[in-house]
Every structure is written in C-alpha cells, then in structure tokens.
Batch of 2 targets.
Target 1
Amino acid sequence: MFRKTFLPPVADLLAFEAAARHTSMSRAAEELHLTQSAVSRQIRQLEGQLGMALFHRVRQRVVLTDAGRVYASDVRAVLQQLSAATQKTMAWSDGAGLLNLAVLPTLGTRWLIPRLGDFAARYPDVTVNMAARSEPFDFSLVPLDAAIHFGAPHWAGAVCEYLMHEQVVPLCSPGYRAQHSITQLQDLARVVLLQQTTRPTQWADWLEQVGAAGVHALRGPRFEQFAMIAQAAVSGLGAALLPRFLVETEIASGALVELFPQALTSTDAYYLVYPESRAQAPLVRAFRDWVLGQCGGGLCYVLNS
C-alpha cells in the first residue's frame, strides 16, 4: 500500500522529468506549454518535498545531482507505466475485453497476424494487443497476459502449452540456385550460407543430420530475425535454413525454392505461455483454445460460458 505523503503532484514530476531530459528549464517549459518560471516553481516544490536538491544550476543549464539522476530514472519509469495504464483503460469499453500478448516478431508477422481475422470474427468484442518479445520475462513486471515462446517448456511461474514443432528446410531464390548450379549437398560448400544470430549452430546441425561433409557451416552473414534471413534469401544473397511454415507464401509464389527435401526438427518447440494466476481467465482460455485449434488441435472455448 502506498503512502500519500510520498506522492508528489504529477505536474511536479512531469516538470522534473522534462527538465532532466533536456537539461534545460526553458526547453522543458516549451515541451509542457508552460512558462519557465512555472517549471522552476514546480521543481522547487518537488525539491522541498524531498528535502534535497535535484539539480545543480550551471549558467543557462541545469545538471542533475547524483540523487536527481537516480530519481529521474525512477520517475520516468513510473510515468511510462502510468501512461500505459491510462492508454489500456481508454481502450476498454463496456462488454469488451483486452488481451495483451507477447509474440516472437517473425511468428507474429508471418503466422499469427494473418490468422487473427478468425479470432476477431469469433470474439468481436476482444482487442488483441501485441508486443515483440524474443526472450522469457517476468509476467509480474510487465502488463502482458500471455506469450508465444520458442524453446523448452520452462518458464518460472507460468504454464507452458505445447503448440507445434517446426520443420527447418534449406531454401534460396530460383535465380541463386541456377546461378550456382546447386544440385547436390556438396554444392553448399561454395555458396553463401545465411546465418541466424540466435541459432548459430543450425546449419551445422542440419549438415550433420543429412551427412554432408566438407561444408564450412559457420560462415556467412548473420541476421537476427527469420524475416531478415527470408528477405535476404529472396534477394539472392545466399541459401537459408528457415521454418517451412514461416515462408509458405514465398514457397507458394516461387520466390523461394527448397534445395533439398531433408528437414531439421529440433527438440525445441513453440509454446503458449501464461502466468499460473491467469490460467482460468476467460480471455486467456479463449485465446488458448483458439490458437491450439490453429495448430491442429483443441476446440475454441466459448467466451461467455
């Protein structure tokens, strides 16, 4: 429980944060549409409540004290949280629901978003917000209801629901395959292998699985996301290992072709993850059953039941 004694007026905090960011009272005043004297007065009030100076006044500039620097960082985080909470509440309407979901960037763009029309049709009063997350996080520290995660089914304080495995296959553009006459595994020794930063041994694992020798598996430019590698492959920059389901459109259009039929299936998989405390929340249950259905199993849960 917070104590009101320690809660300064929001206007004073806004003035302080702006002055700290700009190191200038006048520029803070311009941003807040106030006079410079009004900003100075609000900061003096805040310093009086704290019982310490937050700035050193140096000619026409203000420089944060050590205490002011720490306080500015904390205040900025609180103001951001307050802004996010206000936006979340403003997005709410009677009878509607709000689901805040963390997704892997490429999975969200190439697989989930194209399917969300079906979810919207089933639950027209539900708004799905998405944030990009590539690593596990603490649900108690962020305003998110669930996440789609790739890896092992381990997430502290959360339930992991299996969605699907992926089949990773070697692909390139038709032009690149023709240019380099790629017809057998050994031909990969003389082409560029596009690498993913977060899966540095993927080419090595695939080459070992198919029994290809004499190929330098770690060479080639590195990209952080599958979407980047897919575009690089389409653009003829090299051969890529990509999950087939993420590049269905490029394969269907002929922009990418599979070089060899052998696929790599890893022990990792995709999981829907949500905090244990939200396991019985109607929105989470509705999304859980819907996304399981999209992956080939499960029935959609009726939200009003």
Target 2
Amino acid sequence: MRRLAAEVWPVVHAERDRLADDLADLTEEQWRTPSLCPGWDVLAHLVHTARTTRLSFARDMVMARGSFDRANDRGITRQQHAEPRDTLASLRAASALTRTPPANLATRLVEAIVHGEDIRRPLGIDGVYPHPATIAALGYQVRTPVSFGGGRERVSGLKLVEASSGTSWGDGPEVVGPALDLLLAVSGRPVAAARLTGDGAPRLLGGVA
C-alpha cells in the first residue's frame, strides 16, 4: 500500500498543478466551454474529491441517503465559486493533499487523467500524462464495473492493445490505440474514430456513454 501511494500521489499532485497551469489564462468564453461531462462542473468536482477523506465521504453518503450522485452534486456545489478562477485557485490550494475516499488509490490516477481530458479536449488543449500512470489507470478501469465508475462491461469480449507498448487486456476482437484514448473510451468518453483501430473498435466506440 505504501509503495502504491508513493507511486500515485506524486503523479496526482503534478497533474493537479499542470491542469491549473493549463487553465490559468482562459478567456471568459473558454470558461463557458462545456466539458466532456456536460451539466456539471468538473473542476469543482476535482476540488471536492481532493478534499474528501474516508470520514467525510461516509458522512456525505449518509446525508445523501446513500446516493453517490446526490453526494457528488452536493460536493460540487460546496466547492463551486461564482468565478471559475476562484474554483481554480481552490484546486491549486488543494493540490498537494493526499486525501481519498474509501477506494483503490488507482482511482486517483483515473480521476486526474480522465477528468483532465474532460476539461482539456473541448478546449483544444493537448494533455500529456505519464505513460505508466495512464497504463495503470486503464488496467484499473477494465477491471471495474461501470456502476463503480469503470468500464468492464464496455470491454467485455474485446481485446484492448496499447499501441506503443503492446500491453493488452482481455480476449476477442482487437481494439488498438494509444493508452490515453483507450482509457477515455473505456471510461465512456467520446473518442475520434480515427484514434482507435481493429475489428473491435466500432463496438467500443459505439458503446461509450
């Protein structure tokens, strides 16, 4: 557990800082650009989860009568500022925290990378993430049910192949592509069809939601 924490937290802290840097000079119009998660403030969500402990998560779930979505919505509301730049300042302030809800630490990698792309891609900002961290996040997502934020059902019966390393998961028709695009597709995000190849690609791309 300590070894995993030593591998995960430096990446998460660096990605929080990098995202804050990428968003520092956005225009007012850019701040109004919907993320890949339309309808809710992904930046405020990142602040909320950065500040969430196991105890506060349990308390929030009780207050939300067991509804994760309701607890998440309330957490976003608490951290969302009228001015997006103030929410961004809150992310910077929370950047170095090592708090986590009661979940596998790999979820911190998933969140930092996937939510980073949720914000960056609609803005046309290229995100560059450590390859080992992206592979670890992808490996976690293919094992985790959709109901817990993963994508196991989406890739059932498919073989994912990471293009640069040949790392693979599962069996069946192949889906070949960069680790980041595979991670996003497995996590239910839209990915350009040209980014993924193989006989299984149309099925995966058609099932993201």
